[in-house]
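Re: the 1416-residue chain
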Amino acid sequence: MSLPKTRLQQIARTLSAAASPPTIGTLKLGDIIYNVPESATPSRLPRFRDVLDVQDPVNQDNLHFMLQKFLLGQDIFLVSQPGPYARRLAMTFCSLINSEYEHIALHRDSKWNSHYVDSSAVRAVKSGRILILEGIEKAERGIMPVLNNLLENREMNLDDGTHILHPARFDLLESSNVSGSELAFIPAHRNFRVIAIAAPVPPYPGYPLDPPFRSRFQARFIDPLAASLSLENSVWGSSDASPANTLADKLRDIILSAQFASEARQPLAVVARTALPAFPQTALMKLRQITTAFPLPASAREQRPVLTPEQLARVVLTLHPALLYAPFAGWAALSRQCEEAGLGPLGSPSGEAFGDGTGLLGYKATKIERIDDDNARITFRFTSPEGVLSEVELRVPAGPRPLLPFPLVLDSPNTMISGAHFMASPRLLSSLTALLQAHALGWDASLVPPVQPATASCSTSILVRLFGELLGYETDDVHLYKEVGGRELLMRRKIENGGATSWQPSPLVQGAWNGRLVHLSGIDVVGATAGSLSRLMQDRETELWEGRRIVAEANEQEISTEGLSTSRPSFRIITTPSKSIPLRDWLSYEHANTFLPVLLQPMDTEEESALLRATGCPPAVVSALIAFAVKYRDNMSASDTNHSAGSVMKNRKLGTRALVRMARRVAEVPWDDDLHVMIRRAVLADFLPPVERMNLDSLLAEAEIMQRTAPYNAPPTLDDEGMIFSLDASALDSSSHQITIPRFDPVQDPEGVASHVPHMEHFFDNSLQSGLMRDMAIDLELLGEHLVLLGNQGVGKNKIIDRLCQLLGRPREYVQLHRDTTVNQLMFTTTLEGGVLRYADSPLLRAITHGRIIVVDEADKAPEHVVAVFRSLGSHAEMTLADGRRVRPVRERGDDVVVHPNFRLILLANRPGYPFLGNHFLQVLGDNFSCHSVSNPDMDSERRLLGQLAPEVSEDTLRRLVAAFQDLRRAYETGKLSYPYSLRELINIVRHMRAYPHDSLENTLRNVFDFDVYKPEAIEFLYSVLDQHGLKVKHLGLDAARATAKKQVKTIDFKPKGPTDLKSPKYGKEDPNNEEHSGGNTWAGGTGGRDTAGLGGRGGYMRLFKGHDIKQVSDKLKDDVPDHIKEKAREMARQELERRLAELDMSMGEAKEYGKLLSEVDAHIAQLHDLLENLAAREEERVWVKRQTDGELDDSRLTEGLTGEATVYKRRAMEKPELGRPQIKPKRIRFVFDVSGSMYRFQYDGRLQRSSETAVMLMETFNRLTRQDTYVWDMFGHSGDSPTIPLVESGHPPAEVRDRWKVIEKMGMITQYAFAGDYTVEAIEKAVDEVAKYDADDWFVIAISDANFARYQITAEDLTRAMDRNAKVHTALICIGEGAEAAWIPNHFRGRGFRVADTHDIPKVLRSILATMVGS
């Protein structure tokens, strides 16, 4: 560029800067006068409707501060409680000074992107706009420092090579004639400012501010009270003013007082802080909207109280849904305030009485009628107890489709326009009315399920569809999963045919443009990312791609030329959770501010019974099912309330879907009505821990659902009609117990029949697997259910499915999941052809399209959010594909993928819990799949199967092997073995015996048992089991390996050089360099020597390994050792052992006694150790961290890679905790043992011995853990003398064997000298108090007592008081001896009170309790 031209440009820019921009007026704010400039791009000005009242003194004060900082050229940081106020304040400020703005909503996946197409930040810098950064606390710490130089110096380097400079520096640069055409410098606009918005951390969840970033801002704390009042005033005009004693005013005062109470102002206030959390920022605004739109009649307002306790509780929970899981003390305090205000007490927060057919404030929807193409009218009616009526008619937006007639027919079947059937109950109408009220008020709704873990159905899906059809909506279902980022919620990239990419709107944005109802399913799994949508939901505005924007208002020209768009008034969002995550982890302040919560209630027994009877199931069966379900759910709710060990049972909550499935089955196959089998199958009883299985059996017995004799299931037969299953084929009336499953018609899928039907040459039928195939066939073909098959390894899950598909002629696809499986991989196979990404349908999509069975193997190994895709597919036949297409049961749009009626899902997984330790995918799936447990065949079936497989092997040998393996499996269930031996191992043994009949039995068994070579306790047990069944083997384990090695053809002999004569055993010299020595009779730790301590030699008195290769002298030399040398070596060995025992301060007898105790619980130790060790490892398990700048290419971001984005990689790393989740801390555990005199007096039943064994089990297990800091534990005793007798104190675990033996001795001695009496209750109370003091991740107290409760007048109330003393502490009580005679213990303490009549079971029961409690 020439010098004259450069100077001309500089003069022109100087003149332009000197000239004042055109103004549109003058703003006077307090003592500040500001000339408001004209906007260069009016389309970038604020367009939202909810401008704050600038006459409000609080708003004026905040705006005055912001204008001061703006004129000083400083950036502003608004520190505000979560809510819309701070954003609206920033927007109001922009509107006040007529400044254009850019908005960025930050979330956990945020990154800075400033290349090729300017990002919001770059546009703001160039054009002199205000950049609003909202959600600073959500962005990871590495993100915000990128802006530090821009904030401090107004400088920034862009990815396209452009450099943004401070305007003053830019002028100096040009004046120095450095600028040239090859340099791309642009000045930052002088009016560029940043307004950052964040919630304070703490008390709110998020990342703390980076100090350099924080120091560049001027802070302004937004008073929560003032913000709430300002938002309330925005919807409360003068015409809405009400008398001072109205419901709104009184609740308003209570809300404000709760805010004051939650703010700690003095050190003492922090300690004595109220348990009532502050209300959300929008609570007052919502309260004013609700009470204004739905006023109570004047006569009703004069009554005291105005609302019933239940109606009042519903209003309060709608305003503050976090009270559902807050401490009850807070709810009680709030109830007292309501009573003092004359409103009456609050009802229960559980909302059991919300199902009276009314919504908020006692109003009931009575009529819905269309007004015009875009609107409808809803009539709401209030009826007071005295009969006072009040009707409200509200005009509401509606969709274009026909409206479903309303009102509905109560307590009768109703049919939707789509054809779906439902029962309209008062409970359903109550939730529906609240949902309609939220819609009438203009709010998006969030359907909030009950806090209880196990309830009947809440009709969530029906509510969403019913709402849509009543108002004529076209509904889009968006199923969320954990990998979804904030940007993907709004937009996605699409590759065109030529390889170019373009932005496409997400279903959410399309729904906004077209005025649809958008159902966001699984809002809980995306965590804090959902907060990036708050602006769209609260203000109906959001930023899109390339500067496009959805705004509240825009004219036609701006929409066509300026990149603006608007959402239609009918646009609504309803969110529902997956229910796999606790409420407290996602129902946050931000969520409560964004939506109007609609509290859902489960069906009562009458409604649920009517639903079951509608299937055609006999009433007697329905009554039995409902009676058991009530007991089961009450048990689980009690377990959850008491924080007991119910986590495994919570995988199977026995919801309404499961009951309907059982009722349909009985209706379809009346003769197969064994409820005991069906219930145990539904809750996966085979895989419950022993304690919980006992609890389930007790519940079944109480419900009088008894176990029947298992029938014989004949192998299926084929005829022209299909596959025939017979029950009790030997009976005379077998024809009445047959069922025919139609074969698949090849015409429906000729390609699949030709290529995808499994072919099995051999399948050995047996009763158990034939019965399982019958149950699966009924579910798949007659009931149309999707299946989950769970079982141990090697029980034939795949083979059973393949056999069933072969007999039915059913084509099946197959996919295997693993830890790295992504949602995209389930949907597509991605290839790159000619620079263009091509997507081929995955096996899952092929199965959906062609109506095949899809077998998904290893479902428990994939991440839970991947498995969550199957939930919506299995329950609603819906799925959203990554390319924008939708999977739907019927075609609604041209590109929909329609689910074929023959499509079925079968998920395979290993049993939950130890030792497989898969993901908790059952919690994600819920009750949407029919579950079947696949176990090893019974003894007779297994023998028949092996006989068919290997007829050459004698039947006697097969019987013995089968019996032995049955015992091994029982030993696994009781904890004596840590490996679940399966049919697969037995088949492999028999196949080897058939192929190599001359191999010895012990050599054949090594194929299976060599895994346990270094588990001597397991080898000893295997010896005993094999010997018991007449399977004589000389060696197992290490001995077998060495015995076999001696038989090998190649023999390795070491012949030492030099003399080989023996003198006297000795230790030898220590080599400081630890070099290898062979022979020589000098060095300790050598090999192949004589006299000295080492290995592979002869004559030494002890083995000593120094890490070198072992050279073994010949057996001849070893045998040729004189007797006096052998005796000398033995004597020295005895002396050395005594010396080591002396070091341990133990005698030979004590060592033997401790070893005896240890041997009894070795298997329990191994299992418990493996479980606790794996739990610690899982907490540190690495996952794929996405959006990285290096690593492996992420297949889900290939499109972004083509556009030049850098963050298209993924790496294995530790997963960062969700915002607000507590950091992992140690688990605090106390074990309380009974060491009273009765333990010694009645030790003949083994109680003292078993307690000692249990103590050994615990001490050895925790001592062997690699990460001992993961658990802080101690052991205390209680007797008639004291409730707290220290045995092992926390922080000082017994590290040596002698220390652990002293603990056992102490337990025994105390029982000898203790006086009569019992301190069980006091011991539990003190244990709970002490444990609760520790700053831990979780707290546990497990107590053992042999107290005679009647003798010592200990009641259930006493124990309840002790065990419920602190809500955060999980407690369990094991009653032995006289305590085991108290039948009321397990009934009163569901899931945490256990009677152990057989003292041999004490270690097993305690291990099970600990594993279940800690493993949850």
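DSSP finds 50 helices and 49 strands in the chain.
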